[in-house]
Amino acid sequence: MDQRWEIYELHINGTEELGHMTRIGIIVGSTRPGRRGEEVANWVLKVASERKSATYEIIDLADFELPILDEPIAAAMGQNYQNAHTNEWSAAIQSFDGYVIVTPEYNHGPTGALKNAIDYLYHEWRDKAVGFVGYGLLGATRAVEQLRLITAELYLAGVRDQVALSLFTDFDSDGNLNPGDHHEPTLTKLLEQVEAWTNALAPLRTSAK
Fold it and tell me: Which phi and psi angles does 42 have, rounded to 5°?
């Protein structure tokens, strides 16, 4: 049997190597005080935690306090990072096999904090899958469209299904998340796709090591 196919079989069953469960990071894409992203990410985690084929964990941009990109050499060059905050962010992202990005929409696009955090890294994102959960007046659909272009440039495979939470109908009068019943099945399909594509791309990640 071809070695790459043997590796693929290990990944498609949810393990990159013996004893390793596929890990998916749920990225909170806003750092603004009063943000709703943390609550949305917790909802995603609650639904995802019921799954047995992968483990999920929240990655909160606010925990990393990344300044505006200050690495003198572009991440795509593959050289060592010079700043401690970059190395910390790199280690966090590298430790996951795929991602779900939770994003609001600011002025027709994603947040500056999220774009900045994405731009810090390059190889850490490569050959992994990503899904999108948006929230906003229009469900952050325009922000997600921009993120699809950005993440594709980093060799991230964006899955088809996405969740679009409306500030008008999926949050109560106090601003608390109360998603419509139709969103959870969509989220479940998104998670299934992220896991499937993450596992299918695993041979590429293995061959790049």
Answer: -65, -35
Q: How far apart are CA 127 and CA 156, in angstroms?
A: 6
Q: What is the rounded CA–CA span in Å between residue 10 and residue 136? A: 39
User: Is the separation of the CB atoms in 130 and 194 below 8 Å?
Assistant: yes
Beta bridge partners of 171: 177
Q: How many CB atoms lie within 10 A of CB 124?
A: 17
- What residue has token string 């693929």? 8
Its pTM stands at 0.90
Tokens of 107: 């002025």
Instruction: Report the b/e string of 9-41 with b at 16+ CB within 10 A.
Output: ebbeebebeeeeebbbbbbbbbbeeebbbebbb
Q: How far apart are the first and last CA of the chain?
A: 21
- HSE-CB of 86 using CA atoms within 13 angstroms: 18
Yes or no: say if 191 and 164 are a contact pair by the CB < 8 Å rule. Answer: no
Which of 152, 151, 156 minimizes the C-alpha distance to 114?
A: 151
Q: What is the mean pLDDT of each run of 10 residues along the chain (209 residues)?
A: 36 47 97 96 98 97 97 96 98 98 97 98 98 97 98 98 98 95 98 97 84
d(CA 119, CA 117): 5
What is d(CA 90, CA 79) in angstroms, rounded to the nearest whole number? 12
